[in-house]
DNA sequence: GATGAATGAGTATTCATTCAT
DNA sequence: TATGAATGAATACTCATTCAT
């Protein structure tokens, strides 16, 4: 039993070792220009070993995105449970979470959208695809809860909570993505934080239920 | 001269012929899986000919995005000149323009973000890159004008117009992208239109300058 | 028309050029150890070019066998038409044809049997497979005609001609194969010719219709 | 000693266990497509263990053929000792033995010829190669004895017994191989038995010494 | 002996790009 | 200009084999 468990943990450690190396290489070179050999070298493993842990290059790549989704999901769940915060505070905390992810690695968000292209999706194992779907849905669901609460309390406008959650998610992804793009093209300084905050202000103002709307 | 001009026009016609073919093929297969031969066949030309009009595959690909930017730019300029519309009407018209582009080809938006990845950017000719930057900036600038007008008239909140334009642009791109992704993953019905409209409502409400904000 | 035809001929010339090179390399190294690059070098072409003419390695390999079948088929047809020969003379001439093929390249017969393995067959194009089947059947059919004639004339025993043709084909293939094997294992001198002749004597004696069989 | 012996027997048991598994896998997938891991799984052992009993994949493969040769050799020896049978009866019994082998596994005969290719032979250990040669020669020698006996008794034609034995061996291998091939290509019903019997009739008739040959 | 995780050499195949016609 | 045959560099992936445990 102990042995079984230790092996399992060792295996997971290897997966992480590879994922970390892959993140570095993919971030630097992008999906196409990064070779499996590059990643193997970065992970100080042989190319063959990569295939013991990941079906193929695309699945390794997708696993990066999954990891981000997992992180986001944890943050979202955490925010939900913060009973001290009201809906507006929770929204703000969510935004912080998104900022944290992208601050951690601005390129990863661009790469993550690569994942969505249908050409990629077809090569993923059903299991991985299911995990991604599941995690996305659970995160959106959790965010929707916040809106639901806000709507019930008459703080937010009365729209479908899932739709609001989708829009929240999409808008802030969009802002992050756009700012990341600008940064790459112009090699600008980084305006993500103030821009995100302004976007949040606009969004929040837009969803507040006001008497004069009646 | 007449001959010179006719040749020039003929050349432009070919470019368009190729771009149209490329759009079809890239949309169907994505950047990686689409081959130059596929595109040549679709355009009823030989592979070699493509290289008479485009430096390489990436540049051909980027030209697609440029074309969309051009279209958007025309629409934006048009909206600006609509003197009958107030700022709120203009914003709404802008949103319609964005919807039109993505409705025309939902996949192209995902592919367009591919463009942003730094791996791609490095292979573009300076001229093309300059054109893309220029067009982006002009479009954003034009949108900023609308906000400027709105701020001056006390209709919109008093924030920096370019920042507002960026956020507008990014948010709606984000929504379109997210809806497109959902459509691909879940093969859902298409909720883009109502989602976009809700997003617009939220955004618009958020930027309205209200007395009770004072 | 002339151009079309010249191109066609040029293309066929290239195929032959590749086949000749492939024969040399496969004979020397066997299927597995021969690489496409080896063959390309031998043919003084680039690896990519091989794939313009052959779907893959296995199909190139199979084309070798097809070429032998074609040669055999021509010889068989020729023998059939030799009106001066009686059935026994024709059989003898057939045997000579088989000998000629294998004398030309003793290894090719071993390689040819490689073709039969089901693992190989699955990777061939339908067209090639059809050609192989067709040629085998036509050759066997032609041989069967000889037996038919012999049976009608009361020279050969009265068995089904196709069965006799099959057995003829198989027996002499077997002898050739066995002698080739012995040659490889023991690096013996070559006893194929006398052995084949003895085998032929035995076979021929065995199928002669005799009074004392009655 | 007892322990030593038991170990020896245990070791032999393992070898057989592996060979049986290998036979199944090679028959199903052919030499190239069968992996050592496939075989290890089939044998319920780990890949590493296979290498404790066989030098490499090719040697494991060759061991299969050796096993068949051993079986055939036993049958041949047995036939030789059947004093009740005359030469013609013995020949018939031999043919039955060959049929038995191939009936047991029609694919193995095709695979067995794979062995002969020079690329394979070079990777075998001297010991294994010696065993194969030895067994082949002893079997052929034993068959030759039958012919010798027949020639002495004036039953068979007066040719060199080893040559006759070779031809016998080769012809029937050829028939078996050809029938197996036809079965694979056309997925025909199995005509091996009647074809073999006809072949035998022809062969036997051909080697009988007759007065009218004088 | 047995394991099975790790290795890493080896290669078929693809496809953007070129250039002789 | 247009062609399209030829190129050949580039690489994902496999699997026989090893060796630390």
Structure, described:
Four copies of one chain form a homotetramer. The first copy, chain A, is mostly helical and 214 residues long. Chain A folds into two domains: 1-54, Homeodomain-like (Arc Repressor Mutant, subunit A); 64-207, Orthogonal Bundle (Tetracycline Repressor, domain 2), CATH 1.10.357.10. Chain A has helices spanning 2-33, 36-42, 47-53, 57-81, 87-104, 106-116, 118-121, 126-152, 161-186, 192-207. In chain A, helix 1 crosses helix 2, helix 5 packs antiparallel against helix 8 and helix 5 (87-104) runs antiparallel to helix 10 (192-207). The longest helix of chain A is centred in the first third of the chain and has 32 residues, at 2-33. The first copy, chain A, is globular and about 65 Å long. At the A-B interface, helix 1, helix 6, helix 7, helix 9 and helix 10 of A face helix 1, helix 6, helix 7, helix 9 and helix 10 of B. The structure holds a DNA duplex (21 and 21 nucleotides).
């Amino acid at each position: 039993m102990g042995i079984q468990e230790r092996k399992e943990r060792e295996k997971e450690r290897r997966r992480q070792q590879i994922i970390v190396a892959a993140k570095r290489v993919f971030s630097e070179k992008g999906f196409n220009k990064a070779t499996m050999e590059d990643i193997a070298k970065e992970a100080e493993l042989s190319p063959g070993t990569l295939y013991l842990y990941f079906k193929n290059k695309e699945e390794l790549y997708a696993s990066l995105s999954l990891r981000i989704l997992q992180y986001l999901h944890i943050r979202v769940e955490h925010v939900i449970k913060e009973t001290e915060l009201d809906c507006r505070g929770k929204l703000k905390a969510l935004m912080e979470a998104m900022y944290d992810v992208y601050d951690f690695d601005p390129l990863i968000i661009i790469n993550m959208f690569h994942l969505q292209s249908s050409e990629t999706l077809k090569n993923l194992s059903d299991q991985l695809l299911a995990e991604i779907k599941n995690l996305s849905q659970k995160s959106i669901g959790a965010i929707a809860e916040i809106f639901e609460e806000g709507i019930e309390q008459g703080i937010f406008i009365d729209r479908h909570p899932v739709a609001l959650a989708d829009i929240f998610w999409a808008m802030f992804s969009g802002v992050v993505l756009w700012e990341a793009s600008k940064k790459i093209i112009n090699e600008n300084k980084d305006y993500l934080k103030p821009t995100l905050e302004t976007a949040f202000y606009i969004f929040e103002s837009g969803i507040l239920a006001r008497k004069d709307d009646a």
